[in-house]
Amino acid sequence: MPKLPFGSVLTSFPTITRPPGLFKSIKNTFEQTPQTVRQNATLTATITPPHKLPPASAYVHLPFCRKRCHYCDFPIIALGSSSAVDDDPRIVNYIQTLCREIKATPVESSANPPLETVFFGGGTPSLVPPKLVSLVLETLGSKFGLSSEAEISMEMDPGTFDRDQLREFLELGVNRVSLGVQAFQDDLLKACGRAHGVKEVYEAIDNLKACGVDNWSMDLISSLPHQTPEMWEESLRLTIQSEPTHVSVYDLQVEQGTKFGILYTPGEFPLPSEDLSAEFYRMASRMLGNAGYDHYEISSYCKSGYLCKHNYTYWKCEPFYGFGLGAASYVNGIRMSRPRKLKDFMHYVQSLENGVFNGEDGRFETSDLAMDAIMLALRTSRGLNLKTFGKAFGFTLVHSLCKVYQPYMESGHVVFLDDKGRSIEADEFSRLVSDDYKESDALAFLRLSDPDGFLLSNELISHAFSVIGS
Amino acid sequence: MGSVNRAARFKYSQISNLLFSGRSRGTISAEACFDSTSRRLISPCYHLGWSQNASFCSNSARHHGKDSSSIDLNQYPSDKIRNFSIIAHVDHGKSTLADRLLELTGTIKKGHGQPQYLDKLQVERERGITVKAQTATMFHTHNFLGSDTNFLLNLIDTPGHVDFSYEVSRSLAACQGALLVVDAAQGVQAQTVANFYLAFESNLTVIPVINKIDQPTADPDRVKEQLKSMFDLDPNDALLTSAKTGLGLEKVLPAVIERIPPPPGKCTSPLRMLLLDSYYDEYKGVICHVAVVDGSITKGDKISSAATGRSYEILDVGIMHPELTPTGILLTGQVGYIVTGMRSTKEARIGDTLHHSRSHVEPLPGFKAAKHMVFSGLYPADGSDFEALNHAIERLTCNDASVSVTKESSQALGMGFRCGFLGLLHMDVFHQRLEQEHEAHVISTVPTVPYIFEYSDGSKVIVQNPASLPSDPKHRLTACMEPTVIATIIMPSEYVGAVITLCSDRRGEQLEYSFIDSQRAFMKYRLPLREIVVDFYNELKSITSGYASFDYEEAEYQASDLVKLDILLNGQPVDAMATIVHRSKAPRVGRELVDKLKKFIDRQMFEITIQAAIGSKIIARETLSALRKNVLAKCYGGDVTRKRKLLEKQKEGKKRMKRVGSVDIPQEAFHELLKVG
Ligand SMILES: Nc1nc2c(ncn2[C@@H]2O[C@H](COP(=O)(O)OP(=O)(O)OP(=O)(O)O)[C@@H](O)[C@H]2O)c(=O)[nH]1
Ligand SMILES: [Mg+2]
């Protein structure tokens, strides 16, 4: 038998040799090497992107709820069930602070347009007495101006308002209602910790109709624990029968720190499997589509002409104010989230008034803008406008995006459109993105397909992120 | 959302994985695995025996006086020098005993510094093991032949783990005696046997030290019997100590001085100096540890290397006391360090003979080169930073020359290195040092052993990387050979049956089976190296509740029916996952690999088929269905930042994946495959 071949002393040494003195220079070279698209983007960002416009939208957070729902991780304040809300000092104080915040908000230019959209979100805004909501609207109006055409939306929960209250809200100018129905099965509503049942849902819908609210949204959640395809089908059917102008379908997110987060693991019983949950999404897309709703955003459907203008400012990457506990704003290119704890929020408002709060450090990266633009635009059925995007961030980046998405356009997850809105065929596409790619009219839009692309939007969007650099 | 979580998990699993063979101190009776080095030392020529060495050499060197040193080595001719190693099984207390001896001689202050003073590396401290042999010089006054005499004692603390027995061999070459430390409760263990024979075959005087006698379960008499029956050591010669309490320690140094012969070299002969070790110091450059066999050196001398012929000037010379202490000279029989203008530790060839440039000498026999038994690919974990890894490996190999490194590249992992290690623990320690001392992040491929493939045209290939083995060779394969080891296993007799079952499952052949006393069995097996590389020791520990100890030494190659096992993702082979296995093991290994991958690869936008194949024959297959849903339906109140962070995390996860065809493989998957036997 042969002996193990053993090398002599001379051959057993590592073969890479470099005198220690060279280490440094090699390190430097290395540090300089990575060339990312981002550097490229910084150089070519020339036109004024949408974030430089003055905001014409405001989000107002009204955090009060009777109790916390089991899936909810929003900043809310639970009032409990017994007290009458009318002059609850917690609400009164909060509204005062909120109005102070609005007043103390710096306004950049005097040529600010009046607000075109206001959105009262929560929490349960319908728990706030109309006279207090009125105070907020007045404050907004005198600070920024309020267009007579403004879309003023309010989230309302079944069981929290009667017709008189609703009429009062409408008189204040609220002209769009987002009704938090979530499901049409008492068992499911109970399992979610909702404060209402199906009976209250029907009452609320009747109230809306009786008061002549013609622009309203039905908000639903899919993939709830114990939800079956039959139940989901029923919820969708009953939704369609109620004839809202808008439907929002949220796929349940199990958030850490919520009751659901403690009890359940996504994809595992009693939550529906990943496959079933995907099927729920497809059912909604199919049924609502057949009923004449346009699936204009990943989780939003509307009858023609009724898309939510406020929410659309988000997808278009346009600026918006945010007021109240935990509210996010996007002003001057800076995204900021307010404190989620009431005490911290009070301090924040105080420092705002004292002029010591000067926003976050005021810097942002071009790559962040590019990522926002992609992430938000790809949520819509319109998709990403490649020309505007190219002008803002460089056509090299557009080319890289095309390259990254080529396999997914072939698999049907991604659609490229020409300037006439026609989808581009695979052969044509490979010709367009060949290496001697030039900016051309032929590639106008990039969007995710419905439902296949939408369903994998995170996956697809993160592919786009990977070409943007860090 | 799986991949978001996955991304976060990487880091931890990677770390824990690198540490998977780390041990907790004191819980097991043995640590062992994979060695590599030859047990046999090409015997140093200078053991001449005690009586021949009476001549004095005190005026053999001029003292330069430039060094601000109060130590005058001229007072220590060879008859006042004793060089000894401390050898033992893992954890029997070598480093602790060394602490006590350093304190006793005032070399370090009592209670100052950390325990196991000589274990300086972070890995050593974290794992509580010695990886690198360390030398320290001490001075001690002893009443010798009727008068108080000052002695220079040179102690070398050695690692106990089988992977590092090369360090023991090297250390013994600079010694005339060894303290063989045995835990009074555990008794003789596998590395006790191995290290005893290393010392015995180098003709060293062995002083048995039965340590840890403070333990309630200590049974020194039983250990004495074992020493007698196994090594023919006289029970009366054994010293009983507790390195913990200090009991019996006063007997150790007198025994060293009286029983171990002084170094035998000739002070009148031309300088011959054995290069024992080297490392790179940021400030001083290359530092060499040397043993002066014949003659002497003085700062400023011109010396040459017998191996390379290159010449150097001695810029600094001194002893480790225990830190570098300049003395200006080193005399016959002394062990110390030298600084020359060497640019790289690669010039410092372990085992080389250094001599005065003006004289010609017969080189010392040196040692056999460290043998690399386990090979694996090392790749940058984050794709791009090849240069950073290159740099880190280069720096680390300056201080661990026992790793072999060659560049290689993989389709799946990009540019990387093929590294040879002394064993799996060594590989693990190397990874950990890369991460801790050089901030490199690595993916390592499944470790393999060097196979030999012979073809009909007479050509012979040594395969260190399974991927490099052609799937359809030009010439007919005539023979495959695999390396084997001779393993020594010592265990309480009630576990014999289980151990025999394990060894035969690992294709072992029993060579010897006896009892070292009424309760302990001793077995020798020939085992294919491949079979012990992955998980053998863990398995052994678990079937013997941690009571077995294990050691091995290299043995011959044997003919074996070997096949290359490919892993294919969507039909495309992943080079970095190829392995070579015995044909009988292929179905099981293939199945395990496929199952592991299925578990660790995330569902992706397309269906993925995972296959294990021998040539064109598929032996295991799984499919991973396409991802169905990954959507954040809610983007509430314009909270864009939070959503973007989530997606960025997902992107980071992607970036850290390795791509084969259209399939993203998490780095975790590579780490998991290491554990498949
Ligand atoms: N009770 C007791 N414990 C001891 C004694 N000597 C050492 N130990 C302990 O045994 C453990 C191992 O000691 P080390 O000195 O690191 O052993 P080692 O032989 O150098 O180990 P390796 O270098 O890894 O082979 C440590 O926890 C010591 O504190 C002793 O005399 N009595
Ligand atoms: Mg030690």
Please outline what is shown here.
Chain A: This is Radical S-adenosyl methionine domain-containing protein 1, mitochondrial. The complex is a heterodimer of chains A (470) and B (677). Helices cover 40% and strands 16% of the residues of chain A.
What keywords describe this structure?
heterodimer, A: 470 residues, alpha/beta, nine-stranded mixed beta sheet, disordered N terminus, B: alpha+beta, Rossmann fold, Elongation Factor Tu (Ef-tu), domain 3, eight-stranded antiparallel beta sheet, 24% helix, binds magnesium ion, 4 iron, 4 sulfur cluster binding (chain A)
Q: How would you describe the overall organization of this protein?
A:
The complex is a heterodimer of chains A (470) and B (677). By secondary structure, chain A is an alpha/beta fold. Chain A contains 18 helices and 16 strands. Chain A folds into two domains: 27-37 and 366-469, no CATH class; 50-315, pyruvate-formate lyase- activating enzyme (Alpha-Beta Horseshoe), CATH 3.80.30. Helix content of chain A is 40%, strand content 16%. The longest helix of chain A is centred in the middle third of the chain and has 17 residues, at 274-290. In chain A, 42% of the residues are buried. With 677 residues, chain B is an alpha+beta fold. Chain B has 15 helices and 33 strands. In chain B, the strands form seven sheets. In chain B, strands 11-10-16-7-8-15-12-13 form an eight-stranded antiparallel sheet, with helices on one face. In chain B, helix 1 crosses helix 14 and helix 1 (2-18) packs across helix 15. The radius of gyration of chain B is 27 Å and the shape is globular. The model of chain B is unreliable at 1-69 (pLDDT under 50). Classes of the chains: A alpha/beta (470), B alpha+beta (677). The interface between A and B is large, with 76 and 73 residues. The structure holds guanosine-5'-triphosphate and magnesium ion.
